[in-house]
Amino acid sequence: MNYKTYRESFFVSPQPEQQYQFEGLLGITLFFEKYEEAVAYYTAVLGPPAYVEGSGTRGWQLGGTWLTLLKGNNGQPQNVEVSIIMKSEEEAERLQKAFINAGGSGDEPSNQLMYTPVRYCPVRDPFGTDIIIHVPQTH
Q1: Contacts of 135 (CB under 8 A, 6+ apart)
Q2: What pTM was estimated for this model as a whole?
Q3: Which domains, ranges and CATH numbers included, belong to the chain?
Q4: Cβ(116)–Cβ(125) under 8 Å?
Q5: 24: burial class by Cβ within 10 Å (0-12, 13-18, 19+)?
Q6: Sheet with 81-85, edge to edge strand ranges
Q7: Cis peptide before 14 (omega within 30 of 0)
Q8: What is the pLDDT along the chain (139 residues), one digit of tens a residue?
Q9: What is the 3-state secondary structure (H, E, C) of the chain?
């Protein structure tokens, strides 16, 4: 499906007015029972955390947002998909390989339509969290 057909098929027209003046998201927080294992995995991929609070909070700055891991006893993250936007296809595929090489799994990169055309590099961490690494493509 081309982008024009995709937009006509799935986007509401006219677009509804936003109810608030959003600036963006500060980040996403994931809770892990196997916290130390999760910190080790994300450190292997992303390097040392940029934020450390006590023995139960670690945070990595991802561009203008944060990925935070917390100790949790409410089960592994469920029904969570973390989307990471990269600057280039090469960087997206390099990050995907790093997640897989550290113990995650993922399918081959592909071109997809996700609100806009993107290069899509999916990963699942060893704890079941889906990570979608992508880079916008020109349409």
Answers
A1: 85, 86, 87, 88, 89, 91, 92, 118, 119
A2: 0.85
A3: 3-8+26-136 (3.10.180.10)
A4: no
A5: exposed
A6: 81-85, 130-136, 116-124, 110-114
A7: yes
A8: 898 999 899 999 999 998 888 777 789 999 998 999 999 999 999 999 999 999 989 999 999 999 999 988 666 666 678 999 999 999 999 999 999 999 999 999 999 998 889 999 999 999 989 999 999 987 5
A9: CCHHHHHHHHCCCCCCCCCCCCCCCCEEEEEECCHHHHHHHHHHHHCCCCEEECCCEEEEEECCEEEEEEECCCCCCCCCEEEEECCCHHHHHHHHHHHHHCCCECCCCEEEEECEEEEEEEEECCCCCEEEEEEECCC
Q: What tokens appear for 119 in the block?
A: 């290069």
Q: Which amino acid is at 23?
A: E
